[in-house]
């Protein structure tokens, strides 16, 4: 079978060795004669998995000791609610930077125990840029941002660094570049881009915030409950955490964030440079806010769509269709995407221009 | 390697063919050249998995058309909160049957948007029985029960059948016996006993209850939100749903609930009969409330513990230690546990008595 180039926006490509080791462990985990998915989560073998996964997050992201690292469930969508519950203070208001559909959804959840305030929004231009130069005012308990907007192909390049606690939904670019954890009070991220398979959600939070909400928090949404039990308050999603651990091992072994950030920059530069030089295509996002994870672009002449799509299919290029709210195309080039696959995509775009010319 | 007999309380034994097919699909799903865990959850291939899983639940449990079937995240622990949010009515009170630790945790969550009322409790005897003959009164919006108490080894044999909406945490015995879905307004169950690996939670709810709560429900806890999107409101836990689907296929193929209920009765009778006839052991739970899933028992002479534990280990019997709040032993004999493994355990118990004799 010819190699499939998987440009899916998530769940998405992961390293082949993660698939191989995950499959092996489902048949026989640690040579125990038992499957990974039939053992108790309280067994020594699984506790070691959980501890290694948390330790790898600390090592790779350089997480300071005064932060907790938790593997929970529910996706970033439950994270929207969890973030608001845990960060709500005396002002009973969260400030939100509205950079896309996910940011809007995050803001909505603050209304269930407090209020949300839109600090700034780029909805006026269908979220094709990241607002800047906004004023946070002094009526918010925390400031919430979305680091990368998968649908629109924009990414925050410089994070807020002030006195108001910063919360960040980092689902689609965590582990793709170096960040300074100290800039954040709470980071959360669904696994299914650069961390592992769908089914677990990473939380990294400053210990200071735990137990300091101004509102009563339901048990499963209280990060202190999970921190006190080392992410084992209830049965964790064993398989998703195990595969995430394998993927983090891979990331550490290939050189960690400095290596992968450089690779991701090379990959995204390759395709953005081509888009800017190919007369048939245009990028969707504001140039300075372009995401290194999700490259959104469209064909200037709609009647070429069918030809281009057939060329993509013939080359086994998968998952390039843009989100319905933007249209066009989206190349998601997460950590495990090899530069060779990006080159093949660029070659096809070039071939289309040559055909047309 | 000698066969391991896995008596874990959950995550627990699943059929070997589920492990084999899951492992295969992680390497190459549906012969697509892609891994199950790297494909989009919006792809045709995964939508088919989700639909088949939901359809199998309907077929196996004979779910009427006026009920929804959903695969979500968060475990039964998040289900406690979700149940209370969705069922809270004008009386702002849920009634709870307190039959163990999980029931107590369920009741606690009602306090975040309403009140909980303990209809009856068996805590006076460390939950070794199921209360009966209680009065529900007329001040509750719904009645919440736990069908099977994993820790204490008790199980409800006859469910309430009246006018008050019935909610049931069925995590540890769903798919183990025939039930009448029409008795319930809401059933929820963590996957990791008889349904599949940890990481997904099944909800079966009467369509009538959706959108009728007396309190505002946060988005991810609102069953109507998930029902309207066919369990795809956010990225589902792909792997856990896929393996659950495989396990439900297995259950349907071997004969469904009537077959498995008979098998489970044979297995539990084998071990309970032996406990009652072996002078060294005693059962922990009240005889008429004994669980067919979790058999709790203890040694009458504590100084035999070490010998018994060594014999278990030599026979590759795994996961028999009782929960710390009960002590002794617990044999969890879920659907996939073969009667041969139960026989081997009984043989060892008999051997201990013979040695002692």
CATH class of the largest domain in chain A: Alpha Beta
**What's the CATH architecture name of the largest domain in chain A?**
3-Layer(aba) Sandwich
Q: Compute the number of strand runs of chain A.
A: 14
Distance between the termini of chain A: 33 Å
- The CATH topology of the largest domain in chain A is Aspartate Aminotransferase, domain 2
* Number of separate helices of chain A: 9
Q: What is the CATH homologous superfamily assignment of the largest domain in chain A?
A: Type I PLP-dependent aspartate aminotransferase-like (Major domain)
| Spatial arrangement of strands, main beta sheet of chain A | 2-10-9-8-5-3-4
Low-confidence stretches of chain A: none
Instruction: Give Rg of chain A in angstroms.
Output: 21 Å
Tell me roughly what share of residues is in helical segments of chain A. 25-40%
* Biggest interface pair, counts: A-B, 65 and 65 residues
Largest sheet of chain A: 7 strands, mixed
The number of domains of chain A is: 2
Shape of chain A: globular
Instruction: Write down the oligomeric state.
Output: homodimer
């Amino acid at each position: 079978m010819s190699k499939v180039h998987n440009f899916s926006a998530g769940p998405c490509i992961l390293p082949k060795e993660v698939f191989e080791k995950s499959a092996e462990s489902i048949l026989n985990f640690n040579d125990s004669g038992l499957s990974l998915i039939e053992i108790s989560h309280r067994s020594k073998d699984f506790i070691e998995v959980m501890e290694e996964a948390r330790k790898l997050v600390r090592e790779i992201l350089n997480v300071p000791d005064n932060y907790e690292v938790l593997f929970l469930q529910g996706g970033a969508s439950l994270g929207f609610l969890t973030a608001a519950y845990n960060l709500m203070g005396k002002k009973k208001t969260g400030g939100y930077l509205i950079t896309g559909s996910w940011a809007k959804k995050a803001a909505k959840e603050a209304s269930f125990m407090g209020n949300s305030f839109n600090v700034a929004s780029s909805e006026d231009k269908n979220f094709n840029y990241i607002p800047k130069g906004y004023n946070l005012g002094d009526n918010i308990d925390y400031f919430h941002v979305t680091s990368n907007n998968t649908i629109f192909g924009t990414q925050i390049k410089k994070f807020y660094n002030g006195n108001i606690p910063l919360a960040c939904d980092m689902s689609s670019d965590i582990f793709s570049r170096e960040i300074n954890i100290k800039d954040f009070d709470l980071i959360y991220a669904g696994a299914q881009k650069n961390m592992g398979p769908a089914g677990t959600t990473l939380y990294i939070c400053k210990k200071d915030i735990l137990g300091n909400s101004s509102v009563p928090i339901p048990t499963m949404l209280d990060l202190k409950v999970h921190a006190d039990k080392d992410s084992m308050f209830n049965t964790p999603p064993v398989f998703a955490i195990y595969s995430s651990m394998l993927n983090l091992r891979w990331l550490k072994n290939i050189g960690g964030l400095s290596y992968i950030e450089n690779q991701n920059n090379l990959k995204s530069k390759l395709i953005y440079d081509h888009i800017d030089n190919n007369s048939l295509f245009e990028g969707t996002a504001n140039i300075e806010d372009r995401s290194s994870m999700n490259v959104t672009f469209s064909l200037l002449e709609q009647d070429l769509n069918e030809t281009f799509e057939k060329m993509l299919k013939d080359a086994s290029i998968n998952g390039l269709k843009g989100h319905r709210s933007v249209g066009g195309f989206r190349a998601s080039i997460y950590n495990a995407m090899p530069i060779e696959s990006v080159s093949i995509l660029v070659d096809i775009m070039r071939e289309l221009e040559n055909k047309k010319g």
